[in-house]
Specification:
Layout (H helix, E strand, L loop, with lengths): L9 E4 L2 E4 L3 H14 L3 E6 L1 H9 L1 H8 L3 E4 L2 H11 L8 H9 L5 E7 L2 H14 L3 E7 L8 H13 L4 E5 L4 H9 L6 E4 L3 H6 L7 H5 L3 H8 L1 H24 L2
Parallel strand pairs: 3-4, 3-8, 5-6, 5-7, 7-8
Antiparallel strand pairs: 1-2
Helix pairs in contact: 2-3, 2-12, 11-12
Length: 251
């Protein structure tokens, strides 16, 4: 792991370490690393990721090796504030992506994951609203394990167009595993943004602000995709609450 992370403030949530930065500090840090062409990867921790890491120690190790782990979910930010007795801002992947697009200087982006339709919609939006942002390429990998040769070719294709940041939209936990495996071979900062690309492209709606502030963004998404997200949100969220009680309230 890049030893940069050990110099940053962290808090422990179950078995993953989350950086305790302000929103602006996290943006500044990533942009600094992008400018330096540092090989790094950033995870955005939500309830789903926390529970997956609790159940899978190897996955927890992957998260803890990241250069930054930011509190994506509102519940994660609230628990962090409670544990540290200090206010912690939520740093969601969706908001983070919008901040990247709003940078005043040129940024070279590469997209790994998602679908051609989503990426085309995202390209059109960026071209119209953020012309100084340059999307230098994209890869939509197949829904299967890649061969070693395919992975090497993808890495070579990414490096060939010299991006500052690679937006990794493979979903949790696949994208974190991919970033950990390939960060040493890609000359850019890797951001695991999950579904943020779909929202930013306009192909998926985001919860209204009052639901975000009330920690109900998960409910908005559940209503949109009940079959796919029922287990993740209702079962996983319940288990997360159980873990909080077990680890912190019953001590």
């Amino acid at each position: 792991m890049d030893n940069t992370r050990i110099l940053l403030s962290q808090s422990q949530l179950m078995n993953i370490s989350i950086n305790t930065l302000s929103y602006q500090q996290s943006i500044d840090r990533v942009m600094e690393w992008a400018k330096e062409k540092r090989k790094a990867y950033i995870c955005f921790a939500n309830v789903h990721m926390s529970v997956e890491a609790y159940r899978n120690q190897r996955y927890a190790q992957i998260i803890n090796k990241a250069n930054l782990v930011l509190p994506d979910g509102k519940p994660i930010a609230i628990v962090n504030s409670w544990l540290n007795k200090k206010s912690q801002e939520r740093i969601s992947g969706m908001d983070f992506l919008e901040s990247l697009l709003s940078q005043s200087h040129p940024v070279r982006l590469f997209i790994y994951g998602s679908t051609e339709e989503v990426i085309e919609a995202f390209r059109n939006r960026v071209k119209n609203q953020h012309p100084h942002i340059n999307i230098v390429g994209h890869i939509c990998p197949p829904f299967r394990a890649l061969t070693a040769e395919e992975s090497e070719q993808d890495n070579a294709n990414i490096n060939a167009v010299n991006p500052d940041i690679v937006l990794v939209a493979l979903g949790c936990p696949k994208q974190e595993k991919w970033m950990a495996k390939h960060t040493k071979d890609i000359n850019a900062v890797l951001l695991g943004i999950g579904a943020a690309l779909e929202v930013s492209s306009g192909r998926r709606k985001r919860a209204p602000l009052w639901m975000q502030q009330a920690s109900l963004e998960w409910l908005f998404r559940l209503v949109q995709e009940p079959r796919r997200l029922f287990k993740r949100y209702l079962v996983t969220n319940t288990f997360f609450m159980y873990l909080l009680v077990k680890h912190y309230l019953l001590k």
